[in-house]
From TrEMBL:
This is DUF1939 domain-containing protein. Keywords: Calcium, Carbohydrate metabolism, Glycosidase, Hydrolase, Metal-binding. Its cofactor is Ca(2+). The lineage of its organism: Bacteria, Pseudomonadati, Bacteroidota, Chitinophagia, Chitinophagales. SUPFAM superfamilies: (Trans)glycosidases. Ca(2+) 1 binds at N107, D161. Belongs to the glycosyl hydrolase 13 family. The active site is at D192 (nucleophile), E225 (proton donor). PANTHER family: ALPHA-AMYLASE. Pfam families: Alpha-amy_C_pro, Alpha-amylase. The keyword Calcium applies.
Length: 446
């Protein structure tokens, strides 16, 4: 399915000394990312934010159509750059055969130009917007409570809460989505804080056919941020996808929590990885975007230990894996050209991680699985070891009389190279992994 790079983290323009230059900075990385095997980039919200108290990451949108062209909210460019720079970045992404996903903040806005009295409840709120782009001006009738809906599920940090059932708001947001895809060039949408509004607005946006390359036949990719347990995420997915032929995906937050425990909790049982409670283990991997860190969770609940165990899991298992920029670059987990980093796992993912998953063996400290492969991907054997010593077991695979070579591996305080393996006529062989580590074996004669 590919691999996503989340091409930002919180306050990245400032921390990288790239304020107003982030789009240019990413552009310089595109060829390398493509060569590494990435197939898509997820960008931060591109529009002009409220910038209250300083420049903003964009999750407080003010003017949806100002991508860095209008002198408002303290600057002409956004914190990431100008519209011209963004369009150059998108062109470079497409030239290198990748897709690009926009971050959509549809629940709320911020930075209004004036307070108004809401005539339904008599309360004053900051809901009068006169954006410099001249597009999508708003007043109190665009927000909750309104004539069309008294309330919705949740508000976000006290920001004015858009009423999507107002026909004007609905038409403006769907037009904004069309503009991002057809005019600006995005290929997909990441929906922020989907708990805050009805699923039907996402269905409407994804169900529409868009024009790409002079053909009206493009379905955009979509993924929602529903930060909750698997029960509620599953309910949201089924409701959103009930009547559409372009289903939305969701981030697998429960799986990320489980993988954090794998990395950070002493005595974690690997049997937990086989149990229901995540999108991947609940047979919803086709709708799952798997991840280890993102711009939000890393600030409140980061993984501290042995993070590569978690990356090895998502890059060998089913789902659409998303890699965090800060892990790949700032924390040097890419290790391009080596067998021990994310880059080696991405190569394995793209060449081998296809087909159904079979758990071949699992106890508290040892987990062995196979991906059966497809016509384009040969399949693999993944061994995860939670013990403080080399650990392995004889298992029966689907491959008889086959030569396996280790392609990606890592062990804690151990640099031994795993041995090549050969299955017998019935497909059986011993597969091992180093202490507190993993190995990915791939079939060479299949």
């Amino acid at each position: 399915m590919g691999v996503i790079m989340q091409a930002f983290y919180w306050d990245c323009p400032k921390l990288e000394n790239k304020e107003f230059e982030w789009w240019n900075f990413i552009t310089g990385k595109i060829k390398t990312l493509s060569d590494a095997g990435f197939t898509a980039l997820w960008l931060p919200p591109a529009c002009k934010a409220a910038n209250m108290g300083g420049m903003s990451m964009g999750y407080d949108p003010y003017d949806y159509y100002d991508l860095g062209e209008v002198d408002q909210k303290g600057s002409v460019p956004t914190w990431f750059g100008t519209r011209t720079q963004l369009e150059k970045l998108i062109q470079e992404i497409h030239t290198n055969g990748m897709q690009v996903y926009a971050d959509m903040v549809l629940n709320h806005t911020n930075g209004a130009d004036a307070e108004e009295v809401n005539e339904l409840d008599g309360q004053k709120r900051w809901t009068k917007y006169n954006p410099g782009s001249g597009k999508f001006p708003r007043d109190w009738k665009c927000y909750h409570p309104s004539y069309f809906e008294r309330w919705d599920d949740e508000v976000f940090e006290g920001m004015p809460d858009l009423c999507h059932r107002n026909p004007y708001v609905y038409s403006e947001l769907t037009e904004y989505s069309r503009w991002l895809i057809e005019d600006i060039g995005f290929d997909g949408l990441r929906y922020d804080f989907v708990k805050g509004y009805g699923t039907w607005i996402i269905t409407a946006i994804l169900e529409r056919l868009y024009e790409k390359d002079n053909k009206i036949n493009f379905f955009p990719f979509g993924v929602g941020e529903y930060w909750d347990t698997d029960t509620y995420i599953t309910q949201w997915l089924k409701e959103t996808n009930a009547f559409t032929d372009n289903p939305v995906s969701a981030f697998d937050f429960p799986l990320r929590g489980r993988l954090k425990d794998l990395c950070d909790t002493y005595g974690f049982s690997l049997k937990t990885l086989t149990q229901p409670g995540t999108l991947v283990t609940d047979n919803l991997a086709h709708w799952a975007v798997t991840f280890i860190e993102n711009h939000d969770i890393v600030r409140t609940d980061p993984i501290y230990n042995d993070k590569m165990l978690a990356y090895a899991y998502i890059l060998t298992h089913e789902g659409y894996p998303c890699i965090f920029w800060q892990d790949y670059y700032n924390y040097d987990l890419a290790e391009e050209g080596l067998t021990s980093g994310i880059a080696a796992l991405i190569k394995v993912h793209e060449q081998n991680a296809g087909g159904a998953t079979d758990i071949l063996y699992c106890d508290d400290d040892l987990y062995i699985m196979q991906r059966r492969g497809t016509n384009k991907q040969k399949g693999l054997i993944f061994v995860l070891n939670n013990a403080a010593r080399w650990n392995g077991r004889l298992v029966s695979t689907q491959w008889a009389s086959t030569h396996f070579t280790p392609q990606a591996w890592r062990g804690k305080d151990n640099i031994d190279v795993p041995l090549e393996k050969y299955t017998d006529g019935s497909g059986a062989s011993e597969f091992w992994a180093p202490p507190r580590g993993y190995v990915v074996y791939t079939p060479q004669d299949a």
